[in-house]
Amino acid sequence: MKLSQLLFSQGFGARRECEGLIVSGHVTLAGRVCDDPFHEVDPEELVFGVRGELWPYHAKALIVMNKPTGVECSQKTKHHPSVYGLLPAPLRRRDVQSIGRLDEDTTGLLLFTDDGALIHRLTSPKRHVPKVYEVGCKHPVTAEQIARLLAGVTLVDDPATVRAAAAEMTGQRDDGLYGLRLTLTDGKYHQVKRMLAAVSNRVEALHRSGFGALTLPADLAPGHWQWLVGPQLITP
Predict the structure, then answer these.
(1) Is 235 contained in some domain?
(2) Catalytic residue positions?
(3) Which domain holds residue 107?
(4) Which one of 136, 149, 212, 219 is most buried, counting C-beta atoms within 10 A?
(5) When comparing pLDDT for 181 and 186, which is higher?
(6) Residue 65 in contact with residue 225, Cβ under 8 Å?
């Protein structure tokens, strides 16, 4: 693959822009400047530099973010900044999309990719990919509420019964709320909040800690992201 073509595929601008970056000496390979746009490179496991920043080559982008509160999972936001503003320009140019959404006041594990087939596979209701949520409840969580969540509840304005794949009390939290770990395999609008309301409780804080086989990296700070290698990391 030609170097200019590689930069184009990784979101560093139009083809002419990528050629200009290279000719101007802004691109390095193995720490050395390469100013030939037509230089042939093997993209597999390649790490290249653009303006001093190192980038690994990925045919398809797949990243995980620790979503902070106060941002919306939308390109066209209504009340809050967009979560896409937390991503660097090359990823935005690649048109990465979030795999599902989290509400503006929900934090935690959020995946992005430019692989449309992967988005479909992980969001299809037929796949039943589990998502794990750490819930801060206003009222103590009871054994009866757990039993109802597991058996299935009916949401307001939705006749279909929805049930948790797993639910467990996690005790009173440092913030004074009552902890619940909830695993869901479907993705209805405001589902966690609506399910807790159906059992006479209220969600005061919500954090997604798991998606498929992936758990949120402990060292990933809110608002930061990192690359994932291979969809096998997120499919159970």
Answers:
(1) no
(2) 103
(3) 62-123+219-230
(4) 149
(5) 181
(6) yes
